[in-house]
Design a protein that fits this description.
Blueprint (H helix, E strand, L loop, with lengths): L2 E4 L5 H14 L3 E5 L11 E5 L6 H9 L5 E3 L3 H9 L3 E3 L5 E2 L1 H19 L12 H19 L4
Parallel strand pairs: 1-2, 1-4, 2-3, 4-5
Antiparallel strand pairs: 5-6
Helix pairs in contact: 1-5, 3-4
């Protein structure tokens, strides 16, 4: 089992939580981005730089992911691919995607895109907060505890 991170848009605070978790549970953590990333020296943490381009990092994660892997992403189409391939998808605000909710999120995303394309001004997501960070950390800890206990 590996943890993949759609790292271009993942907040630094979430990356720090993931760095500590990878060391604590000794799981491979791969951060995928189209830019050079700084990560702490570790035998469990590595980066994978992909070329610039729309969805290049997402496509690379989807291609390499194995069933049971965890992917950290806010990208709903990537989350849908992860779920379809038997992986687990967690967004940086601490929400796990599932077969049930990812379809709903995709429909809402497409609806909002249509509204924006029609010229409607729509507010973006709220500012990433300390509560979001804590929710993510709690969900990740719960996931890893279940993994280590053999419940996943």
């Amino acid at each position: 089992m590996q943890i993949w991170v759609d790292a271009d848009a993942t907040p630094a605070a979430i990356k720090e939580i993931l760095f500590r978790a990878a060391e604590r549970v000794k799981l491979p953590l791969i951060l995928v981005a189209n830019q050079t990333l700084r990560v702490p020296p570790s035998r469990y943490i590595r980066t994978l730089q992909v070329p610039q381009g729309f969805d290049v990092a997402d496509d690379e994660i989807a291609r390499r992911l194995e069933p049971g892997d965890l992917v950290v992403t806010a990208d709903i189409p990537l989350a849908a691919q992860v779920i379809e391939k038997g992986g687990h998808a967690l967004n940086p605000r601490g929400e796990f995607y599932s077969r049930e909710n990812v379809r709903e999120r995709l429909n809402l995303r497409d609806f909002m895109e249509g509204m924006r394309s029609a010229g409607t001004t729509i507010a973006g997501p709220s500012v990433f907060s300390q509560a979001d960070r804590q929710t993510f950390a709690n969900q990740l800890d719960r996931f890893l505890a279940n993994l280590l206990a053999g419940r996943l």
